[in-house]
Amino acid sequence: MTISQRILDLPLVRRSDALRTFVVATWLGWQIESNWADPFLFAVYSIVRPLAGVLILVVMYAVITASAFEDPTFAYIYVGNALYILVGMVITGVSWAIIDDREHYRVAKNIFTAPLNGYTYLFGRGVARLIIGSVSVLITLGFGIFFFGLPIRLSAIDWPLLLVSSVLGLTALACLGLIMGAWTLTMARHFWSVGDAVAGAMYLFSGAIFPLSVLPGWLRWIGFLLPVTYWLEAMRRALLGDEVASFDTLAFLSNQALVAILAGFAVVLFVVSAYFYRWALHTSKEKGLLDMESGY
Amino acid sequence: MFDQTRVTKATGLFLFWATMWARAYPRMVGALRERSWMFFETLLPVLAVSGYVFLYRAINAPPEYTGFAVLGGAMTAFWLNVLWSMASQLYWDKDQGNLEMYVVAPGPLMAVLLGMAVGGLLMTTTRATVIIVVCSLLFGVTYQITDPLLLAAVFIVTMAALYGMGMLFASVFLIAGREAWHLSNLLQEPIYLASGFYFPVKALGFWVATFASIIPLTLGLDAMRQLIFSGDPTIGFLPATVELAILLVLAVVFIAAAYFALSKLEQVGRQQGRLVERRR
Description:
heterodimer, A: globular, B: 75% helix
C-alpha cells in the first residue's frame, strides 16, 4: 500500500473532498516530478542544480574577498540563496502544473470540470515541488556547513522562530504560487515566463543574496512589500543566531515583528488567492482557455 | 489542362542551402512576429545579471566585475538557445509530429539542424545585444576594446563551436527521450558555474578550467573578457589567440561529430523503426 493510499484511508481525509484532492494532487505532483528517472539519477538531478547555483555565488564571493568565508556576509549570502530555492520552486511550481496539465498532458479541462476542489488540487501540486525543494535546501545548507564552515549549529538554532516563520512564510509563498498558477489559467501567451519572471524579480528585490541597502533608494521599497524579504530575514536569524549579519534596512524589526508581518501576509494572501483562483477559473472557462494548446 | 512548366528540382548543394534557409526562416520571422517575447527573454537575464551586479557591489568588487557579469548574462541567452532550441528541438519535433516529415523530405537532416542553428543564432544575437545595452546603461559599464577584429573572430568561432555542439546534442537528446527536458534543465547552472559565466574561469583553477573548456563558451567568454575589458591582463585563463585556435578545433570537431551522430541516428532509427516512436 502506497503512502498516499494510507493517508487517503485516514478518517479525516476520507470525509473531506478538499483534503482528498490535496493528498492525491501532492502524490500526482511527486510522481510527475520524480518518475522520469531512476531514484539515483533523480537525486543527482535534485542536488546538482541548486548546488551549482549556490557555488556560483561562492566563487564570486571568494574571488573578491580572498575566500573570507568566516565573514558574516558570506553566511548571509549563502543561507539566503539556499532558502530561495524554495521560493523559486513554489512560485513557479503551480504555474508549471497548469502548463503541464493544459499543454503537455492535455487534461486540464477534465480536471477543472470534474467535481473536485481545484484550489486544493493546485495547492497539492505546489506542495510536491515544495518537498523536492526542501530536500535541495537541506543538502545545500549541509554542504555549506561541511565545506565552508557555515555557522549553523543545532544547539544555537532558534527553533520556535524557525518553525513559526517556516509555516507562515511557506503558506504565504504557496498562496503566491497559487495566484501565479491561477493567473496562468487566464493567459493565452507568455505563460511560460510568468513564474520565472516573478521569482527572478523577487530574487533581486527581496535581498536574497545582498542586503536591501545595496539597492538604489527608489527600488528598495519594493523589497519591503514582499513577504519573501521578511521570511528570509526571519529564517536567517533563526538559523544563524548571533552570527547573523545585521543591516540597517531590517535590523530595526524584532523577531516578533517579523513573525507578525509574515502572519499578516499569510492571511491576506490566503484570502486573495482563494478569490483570485475563483475569478481566474471562471475567466479561463469564459474565454475558452481551459483546454487551449499553444503548441509551444 | 495541366501547367507544363517544369519545377526545377533542388539537388546537391542547392538543396542543402534551400533546406537550411527554409528551417531558419520560421525562427527569424517568428522572432519578429511575436515581439512581446523579447520582453520576457531579455527581462529574465537582466534580472539575473542585476542580482549578480548588486552582489558584486555588496562585497565591494572592482568595477570591471560588473562588466564580467553583464557579458556573462548576455551569453546565457546563447547557451539557453542551444539547450532549448537546438539540443531539445528534435525531441520537440518528434513530439509534435514534425520529425517524420523532416526524415521523409528530400532535404538533408544536417541542413535542417544548420537552419535551426542559423535562425537561433540570429534571433539570440538580437536578444543578447539588448541585454548588453540595457545592463550597460543601467550599471554604467564601460568597454575598452583593444582588437575589434580579433574580438569578432572569437565571437564568430565561439558561436560556430557552440552551435556545432548544439547540433550534436540534438541527436543525443533525441535518444534521451523525455529525459531531454530534464537534461536541458540540468545543464544550466552547472554550466554557468563551470564555464565562468559570472566570474573569470581562471578562478576555478587550471584543471577545472581545462575540463570546462569543452564547452565553447568557456574559452569564448574568457577571450572576449580579455579583449573587451583590457584593464587587467591577468584575468585570462589562456592568451586570447590560443583560445581562438582551440575554439576553431572545437568547431570542426563538433560539427563533424554532429554529422556522424545524425547519420547514425537516422540509420538506426530507420532500421529499428524507432525514430518517431513517442513512448519515450
